[in-house]
Structures are given as structure tokens and as C-alpha cells.
Write a structure and sequence with these properties.
Structural class: alpha/beta
Number of strands: 9
Strand content: 25-35%
Distance between the termini: 15 Å
Bound molecules: guanosine-5'-monophosphate, magnesium ion
Largest sheet: 6 strands, mixed
Radius of gyration: 16 Å
Helix content: 25-40%
Number of helices: 4
């Protein structure tokens, strides 16, 4: 896998240091709130496992799996393939995401969880590519790990055709890998 990587964008150490900082921010805001951490599968799993261990207070874990509906090409409609299992009424929810690009999936997930009666919903994303944001997307992120350029990255949970998720760092793929 390593030889398909053009450049390591974020090393394991950089990621771990930043997660420790995010953990302190989340502790300041949620230590006494028993938050529900909702992970958006599958890309988030590695970040999720590290992030929850940087939060040293009671919390509840839950997951959602969504995918974009490809029947119509225009809208980017989202489909819930697996919903959260917890009752979110009155709960404080923190969505954990691997990467925010166009913003469509997070905008959808955010509204979906609010509609379940959550007392509050905030967003924590490891990576943000602000240049990818689509018009009409108004989603605001509350906690961001790293702002990155508009390049396709893999590793630390992120895939290309389901590969590279288990790389321990975030890297940029060599163009010839796409062109194959
Ligand atoms: P959005 O709905 O914000 O456009 O997209 C978010 C989803 O697109 C992510 O959860 C991820 O699945 C995918 N995505 C966006 N940018 C990248 C990237 O650079 N690398 C990978 N592996 N997935 C990406
Ligand atoms: Mg994702």
C-alpha cells in the first residue's frame, strides 16, 4: 500500500497530538453531559476509536451508515442504510466524521439527528476540505482536526475503492493509482 502514496499529509504523531487537543475541548464542553457520539460509517472508525479514548468522562456510542442515492444524478440524495439505535430525545449529540467535503452527508446527518429530538447536535470532523463545499450547504463545524487542500486522501479510515483504510496516517494517492 505504501508505494501507492505520493505524500504523507498527516503523520500518526500529528494526528494523535491533535486528537488529544480535541479531547480537551470536548471535555470542557461535554464532561458533565453524557453525550452520544454518533460515528458516520465506515470511514470514521479509526478516528472514532481514538477520539472517544481522548474523552475521559461518561459517554454513549452509536453509529449511522448512510450512502448517497445514485438514482438521480443531480441532488445527492442520501439514504440511511443503518440508523442510530439510541433514543436521542433530549440528548446531547456529537457527530464524529472522517472528512467534510461537499458537506452533503453532514448536512443530512445533522438534520436527521435533530429530527430525532436531540437537545443539541454538534459536529466534530477530523478533516475539512473547505474548497469542496457545494453551493447552498450551510453546515457549520464545531470541532475540526485539520483543514486540508482539495486533494483526495486515504488512510486512517479513509479508502479508495475500500482499500487503504488501515494505513496509520493520512496520505495523498499517486495519480497513476486512479488512472489504472
Ligand atoms: P461530502 O458529503 O462532504 O461531500 O463527503 C463526505 C464523504 O465523501 C466522506 O465521508 C468520504 O466518504 C468521501 N470523501 C470526500 N473526500 C474524500 C477524500 O479526500 N478521500 C476519501 N477517501 N473520501 C473522501
Ligand atoms: Mg464519512
Amino acid at each position: 500500500m505504501e508505494r501507492d502514496i505520493k505524500k504523507v499529509l498527516l503523520s500518526q504523531e500529528q494526528i494523535q497530538n491533535r486528537i488529544a487537543e480535541l479531547g480537551r475541548e470536548l471535555m470542557a464542553d461535554y464532561a458533565d453531559k453524557n453525550p452520544v457520539f454518533v460515528g458516520v460509517l465506515k470511514g470514521v472508525v479509526v478516528f472514532y476509536a481514538d477520539m472517544i479514548r481522548a474523552f475521559n468522562a461518561p459517554c454513549q456510542l452509536d453509529f449511522m451508515w448512510i450512502s448517497s442515492y445514485k438514482g438521480t444524478q443531480s441532488t445527492g440524495n442520501m439514504l440511511v442504510r443503518q440508523d442510530v439505535s439510541a433514543d436521542l430525545k433530549g440528548r446531547h449529540v456529537v457527530i464524529l466524521e472522517d472528512i467534510l467535503d461537499s458537506g452533503r452527508s453532514l448536512q443530512f446527518t445533522y438534520q436527521h439527528l435533530l429530527d430525532k429530538g436531540a437537545a443539541s447536535v454538534r459536529i466534530c470532523t477530523l478533516l475539512d476540505k473547505p474548497e469542496g463545499r457545494k453551493h447552498g450547504i450551510t453546515i457549520q463545524v464545531d470541532y475540526t482536526g485539520f483543514t486540508i487542500p482539495n486533494e483526495f486522501v486515504v488512510g486512517y479510515g479513509l479508502d479508495y475503492n475500500e482499500k487503504y483504510r488501515n494505513l496509520p496516517y493520512v496520505g495523498i494517492l499517486k495519480p497513476e493509482v486512479y488512472e489504472k
